[in-house]
UniProtKB/TrEMBL annotation:
PANTHER family: SUCCINATE-SEMIALDEHYDE DEHYDROGENASE, MITOCHONDRIAL. InterPro entries: Ald_DH/histidinol_DH, Ald_DH_C, Ald_DH_CS_CYS, Aldehyde_DH_dom, Aldehyde_DH_Superfamily. It comes from Escherichia coli. This is Aldehyde dehydrogenase A. GO terms for biological process: gamma-aminobutyric acid catabolic process. Its EC number is 1.2.1.22. One of its GO terms (cellular component) is cytosol. GO terms for molecular function: lactaldehyde dehydrogenase (NAD+) activity; succinate-semialdehyde dehydrogenase (NAD+) activity. The gene is aldA_3. Pfam families: Aldedh. Keywords: Oxidoreductase.
Amino acid sequence: MPILNWQFKAIVDSRVINSGQVCNCAERVYVQKGIYDQFVNRLGEAMQAVQFGNPAERNDIAMGPLINASALERVEQKWRAQ
């Protein structure tokens, strides 16, 4: 099964739209064992390319700030669970 670039764009876009605060963002990706390592590496590269920051300051920002402190806490909890 080939790994296609559009897959990474779709996953990244789903996670960063509206700073990831949308209820229909992807939360899980199922990957075949035989391509898991390659897939994770390429997805990591795609996420590292995302520009984070304040979109009011730059027009190339893909993921801006969270809406409030409770949103930050939810993100931190998910991150710690990993």
